[in-house]
Every structure is written in C-alpha cells, then in structure tokens.
Amino acid sequence: MRFSPLFLALPVCLVTGVALGNPATPEGAAALTKTFQTYLGTVAGVVTVQPEGEVYGVKLNFAPLLMKLPAEVEASVTPIEFKLTDNGDGTWGFSEDQSISATFKAPGEAEMSLYIAHMASTGTFDSALGVFSTTSGDASDISFTETTRDASGGMATTTYQVASLHSETSAVANAQAGADISTTYVMNDISEVFEMPAMGEGAAPMTLTARAKSYAADGTITGLRPDALYKLLAFVVANPSAEAMDAGWPVLKPLLTSGLPVFEHLQSKDKMLGISVDSPLGNFGLAEAGIQIELNGFVADGMVREAFTLTGLTLPEGLVPDWAAGMVPNTLSLDLKLTGFDAASAALKAMDMVDATRNGGMVELPENDFLKALLPSGAVGFTLAPGNTTAPLYTLNYEGSMTAGPGVAPRGLATIRMTGLQAVRDAVKSAPPDMGMQAAPVLGMAEGIAKKGADGALIWELELTEAGALLVNGTDLAAMGGQ
Hints:
- There is one protein chain.
- The chain is built from 10 helices and 23 strands.
- With 483 residues, it is an alpha+beta fold.
- The chain has a domain at 388-483.
- The model is unreliable at 1-12 (pLDDT under 50).
C-alpha cells in the first residue's frame, strides 16, 4: 500500500494567491472561504473558515457533496479540520490533529472504508512555490478495507492495516519552472489480508495474509507545475458535467497545454523489510524487497523505468523437493527501462485531435498520426540493466537491449553469464526419471553452445536480428534445429 505524505496536508495546497495579515480577521476568513470554494464549489456547508485569534480555523465538510450521489450509493467522511496561520511573507503555517473515517458503499458492487485513529501534521505552505516548503506528519492505526465483485460474481475483500506512519517533505523552486519536491516516509507493522470466494463448486474460500515489519520510501519530483494542476481543478469544479466540459474545451485546451510537462522527472526508492505471506500452501518469506520507479513527465525524452530486488526468499517446507532445493533463488534483481518515445508531442497531438465544434468529438485523422508523434523513430527501446539471480547451486548475470515498434522488426542483444551449471546438472540426476529425461538434454545443449569465460563461467551472447533470426554465440538456433 502506498500512502503519500501529501495526503496529510493536501487541503492547504488549495490556498494559493491569498495574502492576508495577522491577526485573523472576518475579512480574511471570507477571502479564504472564496479561495477554497474555487476548488471545492460553493455548495453551502462544505467550506467553513473562522478567525480564531492568530489563526484561521478551517473545516471542510463533504457531506453536502455526498448527498448528490445516486440514492442507492451510501457514502460518508468525517470533516477535515485544520489551522492556518498567515506568516505575512507569502507563507502559511498549517497544522492538524484529528482522526479520519470514510465509507463508500454501492450495494452488490463495491464497498470501501478508511479509518485513521490519529493524524497530526504541521507544515509551511509557500504561495510563491504553490506547494509546501516543509511538512512533517504522523498517523497511527490506519486501516482500509475494500470489497469488490470479482469475475465470478463473488465478493472479494482486501484489508490493509498500518500501525504507524511518519512522513517528511521539503520543496524548493526549480531553476526553470515549478518546484522540486523531496519526500520520505516510513510505515511500520503493515498487513494485507486478501479474502477470495471459492473458485468452484465444492471449493473453499481462500485467504492470504501478507505482513511486513516496515516500508520506507524516498521520492523526488522535479519541475512540478502545481499552478497548472490548481487551474485544472478549478475548471473541473466550474464545469461539473460532461456537456459543460465539452463546451469549455477552448478554455480547457490552453490550460492543459500550458501545464505541460506537468513535471520533469519523478523517482522513488522503496524498501520493505521482514515480509511474510501465509497461504493455503504454507508460509512464504522474504527478508527484503526493494522497488525503484522512475519516469519523465510529458517531455520529448520519454522514459519509464522500474527495478526491483528480492533478498532472502524462503518457501514452505516440502513445497520444493530435496533435489531442487538448491535451485531456489536467494536473491534476484531486475531493472527494466523503456525509452525512445515523445510524450510531449503525443499529448499535444491528442489535444489537436479533439474537435471543439463537435462537443469533444475527435477529428478524423490518419490512424498513424498519433503514433508518428509518439514514436518519432518508429520504435521504442527496451533496456535490461545488469542484474543477477543467485541460488545455492548457481549464479546468473544478465543484461540486454532491444528496439521494437509497429511495423519495425525487433532487434536486440543480450548477454547471460552463469556459474554452477554442472552443479545443476548433478542435482537433476536425482530428479524423477521423466523430469530428468526432459531437463538433462536441455542443460547439455546449453552447455554445448556456451562460450567459456576466463573464470570458468559459461557465457551466452544472444542476438535477435532484423531478419528474425535468434543467434546464440553466433549460431542460428533455427538452423541447429533443422540439422
């Protein structure tokens, strides 16, 4: 479960372009009320701002808005309350100390509930930046439950629980535009329970319980354009229906284009420790899992990257036969990156394809116009950064790259390096005869076409040619099969 610390302080982000003075005054409260209503609408009772000495007390009550939902839908959320202090220099002090409870129920379709026993945070909102320059927040006893109808018609329930959460954020002005934001957070004693209905007649319902001792994350966003997001939110509030949004396209399109690239670059590094999963097969364990996510905004140099590492895998006793136990990986790392696409041009082309005279209908353009904008070279690049898999019997190292796209023949190179293949072959000798007879020839062929490294490792250099051939150390595998 990802729990952004920005959630702890989101309401005050709506306070942009307001400059009042100390102490709090009725006039200041009225100005703040008007600002909040720009983003939350003017329904009576939703926004309440009162001067309380040196601070403004703000209450956001969403009950009047929830009453507009269809009659069969039940929803509730406790009011969000916090204090604002005008520092007189374009910054605002923010503080909150409350509990949160929210529910949503669409009978027979979905149910959700959120409860936070205690949530407290403080921060300084910088009007010039449009974001917080600093925040610090804590929450405890967090629980979220979601029940949804699955493909078979049964209701599946997922429950998340977190004992405690601490978060910190900071922000500075970006040299070109917007703000650069850094975030850290740590969650402790996390659990997820998945309750799934029976998958067939006579089968029993299944429950999976996952736990982790801690989850820590560090993230950065560079060049975030918060002002563009606020303007977009204000437009959506002012044009709540699909018809209104279509009619307002001449206003909406400049808001979208001026907001690009939304952000320049985003990166997060997450680490989870002490993972265990209880299942009908037994207990699975993992000492540590790391996840890295990286992507660019709507820029010409499009990029998406995801990497993960797993360490200390343990399996239920008896799940793997003795002869194969040494092949179960202890560690695994994988790092994939997608590049070569132009997200900026694709976004602009998509907006050009909207015909405002047809109330949001699409302009008739050649099918490949969008693809030409998205893929200027006709293909994207896939990169597998150097990674490895280790087990008691062997070690694998791998890396590679490939290009592919619509109408473009895929091409690629990869290198696999292995130590311990002989130990694997020896272990397979103890496998059941039918399994050993299938695995032994494959392992023998792999060793036969491998190159020998200086340290005794086996190396396979793979090439996918433009003609579609797969070469291993220069040998065409298809040709080998023909012989």
